[in-house]
Amino acid sequence: MNDFVQDFRYAFRMARKTPALSALAVLTLALGIGANTAIFSVVNAVLLRPLPYRDPDRLALVWTVLQKAKQTRAPASGPELLELSRRSRLFEAFAGIWVSSGTFTGDGQPEQVKTAFVTSNFFSLLGTNVERGRTFLPSEQGPGSAKVILLSDALWRERFGADPSIVGRPVRFDGETFTVVGVLPHRFRLVFPPDASVPPDVSAWIPFSDDFAKLPRDLNYIRVIGRLRPGVSAAQAQEEASALARTLRSEFAEYGEPGLDLAVSPLQADAVRRMRPVLLALLAGVALVLVITCVNVANLLLAKTRARRREMTLRAALGASRGRLLRQLLTESLVLAVLGGFAGVATGNLALKLFLVLRPPGLANLDAIPLDSTVLAYTIAISLLAGILFGLPPVAEHNRLGLVEALKEEPRIAGARGKTGLLLVAGEIALSFVLVACAGLTAQTFGRLLQVHPGFEAANVLTFQIPLPAAGYPKDAERTRFVEQFEKAISALPGVRSVGAISHLPFDDYPNWYSYDWPEGTPPAKQTNRMADHRSVGGRLFSSLGVPIPEGRPFDSSDRAEGNRVVIVDDSLAREVWPGQSAVGKKLNVEAEVGGDFIRTWAEVVGVVTHVRFQDLTSEERGQVYLPYAQCPRAVMAFAVRATGDPRNLIEPIRRELARFDRGLPLSRPSLLTDAVARARVACRFTTLLAAALAGIALLLSAVGIYGVLSYLVSQRIREIGVRMALGATRGRVVAMILREGIEIVLAGTAAGVAGALAVTRLISGLLYGVKPFDPATYAATAAVLGIAAILACLLPAWRASRVDPATALRAD
């Protein structure tokens, strides 16, 4: 123990003795360890930390698979949920959720909020307790039950002033009176996959009033979550679910026609399935950065070890054992690693703050990422590992040293000395090539994404939502009249070019509406082979969004509820259903909402519009069917207003017009359509920025590594350079000689880097769009960037070598 304490004291003295080298090593480690700390904190929070529910490993989502329609992640119907609850033996219970919106009135301004309709056991299944009051009772679900509501903590504080007496009080919601039965905890969040259309920021909760047993078996809208019994694996649950699906297909014709199946997905894995590849790729990237960091520090310590040869040799001659000397060198490395670890925690904390600003929608539920004990343990572990890794080369260098040889006069013309450093730098360049190539590919992906046309023109378009609750607008004719008159009022405002209404805006987070469609003459067995997105539209919607109509006409005032049923389809659906023919005039069987119920109806196609990307910029989407609002009124409609100038200037005039029509209706979520498009690109931008940051760090460290090694070699070859210049070598030739040696290192590292990149980039192919993992242009650009960085790093050592005075060099030693 005394030797151990003495080694650490001596290590700290040696660090103080060379403050510049020590500071450079600690700063380098702060970059590498800090990047690892930040990314692992996110990985820990998203992938490793259990969800904030009771026994979260036993929670699983159950998706409906409609095989014929190729829908693998569809919601369930009410009868499906009942069948699962009755027949399953491996699940303790099932719960359902569906998210819509509703409006609070009575206390202050009307406010539209995201509202979740849930089964009464939803919170007990999650194991969530309320902060105040209670959750729902079984008797509060179903038709004719009491109207009760749960509030989120944020809504309770913001709208009701954190009033502790809120429980038991009546509130006005969607034109009806509800009793508040509880307030959820501040930390409660919904954690569902993005394609479940269950956003994390739901503000109000209401039990389902539907009678599930009487609903159509093909009315799929409920997201189902189940709790497995103790000891049951997801694989066992999947086997049971598949068996249940086979039974349902055999017993009910409605399930047999679409080829019903059921898929069980553990909630935690499913919720992060889209972000998992991104986070694991970033974790691998920061691991490479840490290796590059260790290589850099190892080269610094190699130079320091060579400068201390005489000291170490004299200590050996005075009786110090080889093991004691090697332990001393390793202790000095560990001291630097510990200091670098402390600096890395501070750097990682700053990086996390930046991460939270840039986080994509898939991580929107993360409002904080703490540096907890798991992260600190990880940081300590990688710091010690880094200390061992960059401490090994100096230890190996000293281990090869002979006592007699070291005491002799050292020759100044370098031979093989420095080969270890050169090999390390070549490896560093190879790893940098991999990171820069990956960053180049993700940058190209983002560039391709910027070029993807969403199918509409987002510039100068203001969007907002208006709910029309059944209590205030119980009839379809009343809703239709309001929407049409409100559109006319907005159109008359100065600065408005056109106005349209639509049930689902592009890239919103409300549940999508899609259903089967089929043309005339389709046999019953094939009527469930395809699904299309359905949209209810009004006014000059296509003109407002800038969606071209290459064939047919838009909806007009003749398309009334009492008239002939009409639809507009997009060009992708038209090509699929009527290839080589005009779709205009054809008949299509679609789903429409009439009087609050969904019905099947035949409609004539009167127009064809270009395909619009409503959900994602990179994936193929379903075809689209548009129905006139007068023939398919919806309870919540969004409006798109194309302005002649800045659309934000229209918000207050439109708000005043709405108050003139109905003071109880809120103007909800006013925003620019360009912001929605930007949000659709956030995830790719996030990946690109972080990949570019890692590549930048790798480039910087590689340049520093090349500079450090060449500077050391030049200092060791002063006499050789003096001899060359005394024999007639020009300064230009000396510069060329040093540059050539640096470029040789770069070429060797680049060759190894190309081989490594070919293997690694295949692993990130799922994150790429519009670019192949092996893109010659990206690889060539990467080699050019590394070459430029290497030349810049070589210039100063080469210039120093050319300034050597031959006479002074020959008198040295």
What does this structure look like?
The chain is of the alpha+beta class and about 800 residues long. It has 24 helices and 23 strands. Helices cover about 50% and strands about 20% of the residues. The strands form two sheets. Strands 12, 13, 14, 15, 16, 17, 18, 19, 20, 21, 22 and 23 form a twelve-stranded mixed β-sheet that branches. It has a six-stranded mixed barrel with strand order 3-4-9-6-8-7. Helix 2 runs antiparallel to helix 9, helix 11 packs antiparallel against helix 12 and helix 22 packs antiparallel against helix 23.
Radius of gyration: 34 Å
**Percent helix range:** 40-55%
**End-to-end separation:** 42 Å
Discrete helix count: 24
Q: Give a count of the beta strands, DSSP E runs of length 2 or more.
A: 23
The main sheet comes to:
12 strands, mixed
Structural class: alpha+beta
Query: Shape from CA axes?
Result: elongated
Write down the overall mean pLDDT.
Answer: 86
pLDDT < 50 stretches: 409-417
Task: Give the helix/strand layout.
Elements: H1 2-17, H2 19-48, E1 59-66, E2 71-74, H3 78-87, E3 91-105, E4 111-118, H4 122-126, E5 132-133, E6 148-151, H5 153-158, E7 170-173, E8 176-183, E9 204-207, E10 223-228, H6 234-251, H7 253-256, E11 260-266, H8 267-271, H9 276-307, H10 309-317, H11 322-358, H12 373-399, H13 403-407, H14 419-451, E12 461-467, H15 476-491, E13 496-502, E14 514-516, E15 518-519, E16 531-539, H16 541-545, E17 551-552, E18 566-570, H17 571-577, E19 587-594, E20 597-609, E21 623-628, E22 636-643, H18 651-661, E23 668-672, H19 673-680, H20 682-716, H21 718-726, H22 731-763, H23 776-802, H24 806-811
Parallel strand pairs: 4-9, 6-8, 16-21, 18-20
Antiparallel strand pairs: 1-2, 1-10, 1-11, 3-4, 3-7, 3-10, 5-8, 6-9, 7-8, 12-22, 12-23, 13-16, 13-22, 14-16, 15-19, 17-20, 18-21, 19-20
Helix pairs in contact: 1-11, 2-9, 2-11, 2-12, 9-12, 9-14, 9-20, 11-12, 14-20, 14-22, 14-23, 15-18, 20-23, 22-23
